[in-house]
Amino acid sequence: MFIRNAWYVAAWADEVGETPLPRRICNEPVVLFRDVAGNAAGLLDMCCHRGAPLHLGQVTERGLACGYHGLTFDRSGRCVHIPGQDRIPERARVRAFPVVEQDALLWIWMGDPAKADPATIVSYPWHNDTARWPHKHTMYSIKSAAMLMVDNLMDLTHLGYVHTSTIGGNPLIHVEAKMDTVRTAFGLKFSRWMLNSVPPPTYMRAVGFQGRIDRVQMFEFIAPGAILQFSGADEAGAYGDGKIEDSKLRFRLFHGLTPETDTTCFYFWSTANGFRPNEAAATESLFNEIAAAFNEDRTVVEAQQARLTELGEAALVDIATDAARLHMRRTVDRLIAEEATGLAAQ
Amino acid sequence: MFIRNAWYVAAWADEVGETPLPRRICNEPVVLFRDVAGNAAGLLDMCCHRGAPLHLGQVTERGLACGYHGLTFDRSGRCVHIPGQDRIPERARVRAFPVVEQDALLWIWMGDPAKADPATIVSYPWHNDTARWPHKHTMYSIKSAAMLMVDNLMDLTHLGYVHTSTIGGNPLIHVEAKMDTVRTAFGLKFSRWMLNSVPPPTYMRAVGFQGRIDRVQMFEFIAPGAILQFSGADEAGAYGDGKIEDSKLRFRLFHGLTPETDTTCFYFWSTANGFRPNEAAATESLFNEIAAAFNEDRTVVEAQQARLTELGEAALVDIATDAARLHMRRTVDRLIAEEATGLAAQ
Amino acid sequence: MFIRNAWYVAAWADEVGETPLPRRICNEPVVLFRDVAGNAAGLLDMCCHRGAPLHLGQVTERGLACGYHGLTFDRSGRCVHIPGQDRIPERARVRAFPVVEQDALLWIWMGDPAKADPATIVSYPWHNDTARWPHKHTMYSIKSAAMLMVDNLMDLTHLGYVHTSTIGGNPLIHVEAKMDTVRTAFGLKFSRWMLNSVPPPTYMRAVGFQGRIDRVQMFEFIAPGAILQFSGADEAGAYGDGKIEDSKLRFRLFHGLTPETDTTCFYFWSTANGFRPNEAAATESLFNEIAAAFNEDRTVVEAQQARLTELGEAALVDIATDAARLHMRRTVDRLIAEEATGLAAQ
Predict the structure, then answer these.
(1) Which of A22, A274, B127, C64 could lock onto A250 through a cystine, CB 3.0 to 4.6 A?
(2) Which of C69, C81, C87, C95 is the best mutation test for A, with the most CBs of A within 10 A?
(3) 3-state secondary structure C111-165
(4) What are A144-168's pLDDT values in tens digits?
(5) Is the confidence at residue A345, as pLDDT, over 70?
(6) pLDDT tens, position by position, B138-150
(7) Is the pLDDT of residue A131 over 80?
(8) Which residues of chain B have pLDDT under 50?
(9) Are A48 and B315 in contact (CB < 8 Å)?
(10) Which of C51, C83, C85 is closest, CB to CB, to A316?
């Protein structure tokens, strides 16, 4: 059960070049490609003639040509060429999905195309600000539902158990963080303040903090699968004035979770270095630290998925630290229900 | 849904020696073996005692002995020995499938044994004519329904898209080929003439054609899974008199498609060199060129199967070049229907 | 369909140390661990908070802490710590399975805990008698139902077909063995006498027998999955007086079969060297010979399972040598039926 009338990240823009890219999204086989003018498109990855996947074909002047018998389709899915005959039947077309390129990402709309409004795509200008926020990005294939990865980011107390040796550190710091939460139309924002705390290993490696630090994490979840994160840290006491923009350590993370199937997803993520933007090594190092931590998440969440697939969630017990996660889930459930009953989700 | 009252290729005769060979055919686990006299046989690959596969056993003077507790079966599936007891119960037998060795192939009948007439087996004498048609053969396991591989051979326009760098060449040549079709009791024959055309890479490598060529492909499909092919080529103009027997380049291909399961099959094929029969290198080279081409087919047809398994064929659109394929399908559908309603298929 | 009110081998005691061990038993995911005092325990391997497997966690002073958000459970499955809150809800618990450590094994009870009586655990004191019966042990994961492995041990005529080159030797010896059988409350005992017989390869390698031997195998099956074996051999004629305790070659095998799923199981087995107890090389060599033989069993039984999964057992035919196996099966079926109708199985 997915929200369908919504924009999902389909790919990093630089993943799709001359060679068509197959990717299953919300359980549909999609082929992503660029026409000769460089415009990205997404079609059902199945030729309407004999069913061969279109990603085995190639882009020609006319569009995407099937690699089996040469039928060719434009970005709208219309068949524009059939070898051996002039007349092209009206039925000769494949389903097209709206695709928009924005902020280094290709966004795709899996629902009713008539409702696809590019103005509602999540904005993430930092991907374009290579001078002040140089970033590095990748995609992880995760064997869990997208929602379990969103869950993971809504309860940060896991940092003290899953990421002890990387971005976590002492469990108590995360359990005792002061948390402010604001609900929004399509999700929520929350900030977690850990003043006068011991820095985690990653932070010490990044900036060389000697003593205690003030630390903040700011998250925004926007349904169905975007999470925007700012993390800052400075010498203890520095946050007394509420200013965090100039934190000695500051970085941004983009998290885009896209369902592949009911129990697998794509995790598109980037790390943007705002604290030493002129040092490529700092950008690289930040990415590597986070990559190690996200592999720790992958291990536990994939194992969690296997248990939930087998035994279900009915017997599970919510605890106090689930508050943000539960609000996120209620938002998503509401959007799914609205979509099912025909109310506009956007 | 398979035609069952029909002869399928079970194996190349030289695949079955002293060691029993397990092979799933039409979704039945079969063990192929030769008794001590060298006569080939096919039994259900499951001992009637405790269900162990008989292919783990060994051939003795008495027949095929199970490798678990030693029960032994003759070629008719009758149990002829039970260690530890003299009386052999009537129920102690395994199902036997008629098997006939002919033209370097083992043919098997998966339906009603009473209807198995060896006279109806497809004849392919070129496998025995090692002087004028030396051949080389193999078997490919394909992850597609046998019918999709037959489809592939009924629409040769795919040569221009799938086999550009091998036996195909320019797509237009295949789309514009002049085609003669004749319907037969169990299939169809068709010839494809490409006069005054540019030779494909394989042909240039084989014979060293310098300029344009006359080219012909002659196919016969005989249900359920045999396709006999003659391919010829000569200098442009040579076919003006209708004679193709002495073509400068001439070779024969045997294609035998046998269902393993609903979505997998065995592709038995051979290449016979009729143009330089005294040169082993030419026989070898022809085989290697075709092997490369058939691996290209495998890639696209297996990908096609995956899509059809998921999304079905209902929305597909037939085009002009599907004519021979559609006649083949109607023949097979008619034979399945006749078998279902009890009419003799042979 | 498993007997549930019974003790199964869950692990060798030395398999479970500081790191929790996941193991599926009777189709339930179990985590085995030891608390800081060294006491073994078994819990459902799924945290009651978000479903993460507990085997990814770690043992602390308080118990087993989940590796995701830190909830901690004692050996009874009670939650004793929730990070971030003081009140622990009554529902916060995971299912616990009774576990007992005895004779180098961890035994687990998968049924009603109120019926779990440690006094009914199979006794195997030889695992503790390192002076006179030094042993070596291991566990094989087998892709067959546990019952098929028990079957295998109830019809020893398979030695002449499966183990020709190891512990078997000439098939006729096993078919003609004189067999005494005694029925017991939870199974049966049988002895197989092979007097004045040719020694199998393993025996010749172990003791260097030159001529014919007297040979005996004594088996006891105790439902649901324990088989205790004594094997002896001596110069031909030595068993005339009925004494076997001082056999020149004598060893004991423990076989514990535990269902993992309906079609996979764990095979816990040990070999105890009673003939050269002071020679570590003899203990090692005995183990290696048996390990080779049990891999031969694995091959045939896994192949048997595949056939039975596909085609069922309905058409199979029992033979004379199935007598002990059939009694074993009737015992197990009776215990399953008694359990289903609420009669005490113990």
Answers:
(1) A274
(2) C69
(3) CCHHHCCHHHCCCCHHHHCCCCCCEEEEEEEECCCHHHHHHHHHCHHHHHHHCCC
(4) 999 999 999 999 999 889 988 777 7
(5) no
(6) 999 999 999 999 9
(7) yes
(8) 345-346
(9) yes
(10) C51
- Cβ–Cβ under 8 Å, residues A228 and A222: yes
Amino acid at C303: A
Of all residues in chain A, the percent with pLDDT exceeding 90 is 85
Nearest-neighbour CA in chain C from A333: distance (Å): 18
A71 to chain B: which residues are within 8 Å by CB? 319
Percent above pLDDT 90 for chain C: 85
- Which strands, in side-by-side order, build the sheet including A96-97? A21-25, A28-34, A40-44, A96-97
Task: Please count the other Cβ atoms lying within 10 Å of the Cβ belonging to residue A114.
Answer: 8
Residue A129, pLDDT > 90, answer yes
The reported pTM is: 0.94
DSSP conformation class of A86 = S
Got the DSSP string for B159-177?
Answer: HHHH-TTTT---HHHHHT-
Which has the closest alpha carbon to A160: A337, A321, A47?
A321
Question: Chain A within 8 Å of B320 (Cβ-Cβ)?
Answer: yes
What domains, with CATH codes, occur in chain B?
7-120 (2.102.10.10), 125-340 (3.90.380.10)
Reported ipTM: the value is 0.93
Quote the CA–CA distance of C1 and C259 in Å, as a whole number. 10
Q: What is the pLDDT of residues A323-339, one digit of tens each?
A: 999 999 999 999 999 99
C68–A300: do the CB atoms touch at under 8 Å?
A: yes
Task: Give the pLDDT score at B345.
Answer: 43
pLDDT band at C98 (very low <50, low <70, confident <90, very high): very high
Q: Which residues on B lie below 8 Å from C306 (Cβ)?
A: 53
Chains near C with 3+ CB pairs less than 8 A apart are A, B
- In the prediction, which pLDDT does B343 show? 63
- The Cα A222–Cα A328 span in angstroms is 9
Residues A51, B158: C-beta atoms closer than 8 Å:
no
The token duo for C20 is 């929790």
**A308 to chain C nearest CA, in Å?**
6
**Residue B46 structure tokens:** 């499951």
Closest Cα in chain C, distance from residue A175 (Å): 5
How far away is chain B from the Cα of C42, in angstroms, using its nearest Cα?
36
What distance in Å separates the CA atoms of residue A69 and residue A62, rounded to the nearest whole number? 15
Average pLDDT, chain C: 94
Strand extents, DSSP E, B82-155: 96-97, 99-102, 105-109, 135-142
Extract the tokens encoding C212. Answer: 């014919």
